[in-house]
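Re: the multi-chain job from yesterday

Posting the exact lines I submitted so nobody has to dig through the queue logs.
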Amino acid sequence: MLYRIPYLVLLLTVLAASAFAQTTPSSTAAATSAQSETKPAPMIDKAAPAALSKEKIPVGSKVYIAPLNGYESFLVAAIVKKETPVVVVNSAEKADYQITGVSESVQAGWAKMLFLGSQQSNEQASIVMTNLKTGVAVWGYNVNKTNSYKGKQSSSEACAKHLKARIEGRE
Amino acid sequence: MNGKILSILLMLLLVLVVVSSSAQETTKVIPAGAKVFINPMKDGFEKELAAAFDTKKVPLEVVTEKDKADFEITGTSESKKAGKAKILIRGSWHSSEQASITVTNLKSGEAVWAYSVNKSDSAHGKRSTAEACAKHLKEKIESKK
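And the result, structure tokens for all chains:
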């Protein structure tokens, strides 16, 4: 019976290694590409977002949400649910501001279910609000949820909550 | 004399505020019997939604032409069937469903209502999410707000 233990340990190690390889392909790819590049990554100017956030977003502003591969619909629902004080319109011509962005979902794989006991997806989204008259980005927010309880709904509600806080001057 | 003028002005101001606020409120109302056009959605979710309106007796008239409608519904839906891991580890073969719909007033172009739903173990697949949307839309119409 005892002679089986090393085989079991070996099997578990192989499983864990394959699971790790499954969940982190992008990070390893990023690391190899970073190593191959000789040029250093451009520095992000940390002063820029502070300068952008000075403009006040008036309550009741008309906002157009550009198509985000279906995520725009979740965003509208979140704005309604969180009572964000903006009016969502269906055309950029009728709007004062425009929201653009990107969202990404990764469903839980078997390894996550087995080792972490979680079937929740990983969600990330990033949105930018631009003043259509001036063309200036007035607000931006990104969210990353490793175990999103309600999928896209959770990430969009986070965006709506923070937009509300920004309009009300709490952020 | 000045006091009277001031009180009249105050009354007028009050009336204006009340009228403008009620006008703002009415733009968000979806009247019962309104004509609604459901835009095509991913994986034919518009058909599920139309069927759910019928099942849940949503007081709206679904039309097939956008020109005849007062409101339009746009949205998206996503479905993921249970994989082997979910079946073996969690013992569930139900699919994961998420959907989101937005009702827009075609005259004003404003979104009047929106709802999103996420079901990690949907008993009846898309039908469950569509019926959740229909149920909440019915509540919205009946609340007259």
